[in-house]
């Protein structure tokens, strides 16, 4: 059986007119290659986001001291989050307050001093 080979304008298979070089085969990725490429692109994107996103620091830019608040009678972390950082997502603020202060649960006590996120 004879295989048919498409000839370029020059009459020679695989060559294009005037180039003198063979035409490269089309790029084909295997499933593994597509996965590796997708993971590499996601890692690159995550790295760019990490570099460009402002770091949350618990410091007052004017004095360099951490921004703090004292828990009032009847306060909850939610109330503190809404009062100290209005306009921010209270769930994220509460999580950050807990992380900054090493709180294992949501219990706070009147008179307790809490470090606040520096998302002003």
TrEMBL record:
Lineage, opening ranks: Bacteria, Bacillati, Actinomycetota, Actinomycetes, Micromonosporales
Domain LysM as annotated: residue spans: 67-116
Pfam families named among the record's database cross-references: LysM
InterPro entries to which the protein is assigned, alphabetical: LysM, LysM_dom_sf
Disordered, as annotated region: 1-27
Organism expressing this protein natively: Plantactinospora siamensis
Descriptive protein name: LysM peptidoglycan-binding domain-containing protein
Membrane-crossing residue ranges in chain numbering: none
CDD domains named among the record's database cross-references: LysM (cd00118)
């Amino acid at each position: 059986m004879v295989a048919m080979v498409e000839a370029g304008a020059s009459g020679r298979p695989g060559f294009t007119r005037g180039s003198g070089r063979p035409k490269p085969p089309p790029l084909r990725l295997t499933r593994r290659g597509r996965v590796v490429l997708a993971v590499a692109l996601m890692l690159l994107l995550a790295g760019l986001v990490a570099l460009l996103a402002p770091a949350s620091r618990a410091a007052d830019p004017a004095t360099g001291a951490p921004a703090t608040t004292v828990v009032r009678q009847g306060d909850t972390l939610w109330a503190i989050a809404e009062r100290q950082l209005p306009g921010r997502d209270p769930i994220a603020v509460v999580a950050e307050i807990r992380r900054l202060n090493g709180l294992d649960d949501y219990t706070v006590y009147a008179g307790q001093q809490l470090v606040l996120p520096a998302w002003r």
